[in-house]
């Protein structure tokens, strides 16, 4: 069913597209579906920046995406299908469905993003049974009914939440992205080195970012975010026609907050006990510092010529005993072991920069020894960025980055493994309004997916963009796995 069709022009002022969405009446009993997907199709022509898009339903964010920058002439169109089955409790009731995609039309920017959003409900059967789902989903958001429900941090964002007294398990999902001045957060240099480089090249406050979830003042879990390079990042011709991994669906991060039931406690997926008697919780171990352990080292040779290294470590260990109203005792162990490294080197008055960053970690939760959440990840990212002269109007760059993740978000979903490796190389020249910009780029990708049910999918695809908008070749495109049909 079509949810909305909306043109985003001056939407910074005009606001989001808001639609009343109700469950279908001809797809079996409400809430018994095997799956739900959202289909986003966007088309545009002209010139426009990449723009952040946020979907919320019942004040719960369910999808964070970004647009692809258009091309002049034929324009562009893309379609993305997202599985939203995990949010099924939201779709069982009528509510406001909101897509915020802030855009601006002004001199030099005339691209209007025309969007169509549709939902597909898959009726369950003996072969495809109803999907497992949480009993309720609780938003951790601004609870706005007129805008997307995200908030900028810092400062800290807080909300008072009450959960049912017979709750026996809670799993949090965190949406996080760097936007605006934070879009290139990974390239920020430590404050003590910022006076040694032109502020036109980079920003201060170093390249380490940690998203913390606190409950009643105690750290419950954290995330070291993945670097998402939007379609205008580094060299725009890198990403035509293949975007950086995560652009259309930014990764999210998961925390088991069940141990905090003893102190009452993104979004929360809540599992209830069969009994209506209150749950009793006792947190027996809480080992989590307020902030990660960090260090900054480096050496300055001259202005615009230095190296800086930032490291960070985070260890969290929380245990609790949860006694349900029906008498079930559950011992919960939640741990996180995360590492971060960012090495930056600047030469030639800061015009030549190299960056090597990696975030790795292992988050794990067991309930009575059974794994209910597991997240093993590695996000290596390296790049060279070379301004060719002091005007900062032409440059070359290359990127080598990966997204490697073995993930079980919660016991209601299946464990999967995703490995994505992408390399790019290219040149870009800012031009006048009359001549326009010029650039080229290559983009090589390998992707693989597998899950515990035996599903597999692989794809290797390369693109060559030899004239920014006009000449694009795909010399390699190979698809495999049992999901490839």
From TrEMBL:
Pfam families: PNGase_A_C, PNGaseA. Residues 2-263 form the Peptide N-acetyl-beta-D-glucosaminyl asparaginase amidase A N-terminal domain. PANTHER family: PEPTIDE-N4-(N-ACETYL-BETA-GLUCOSAMINYL)ASPARAGINE AMIDASE A PROTEIN. This is Peptide-n4-(N-acetyl-beta-glucosaminyl) asparagine amidase a.
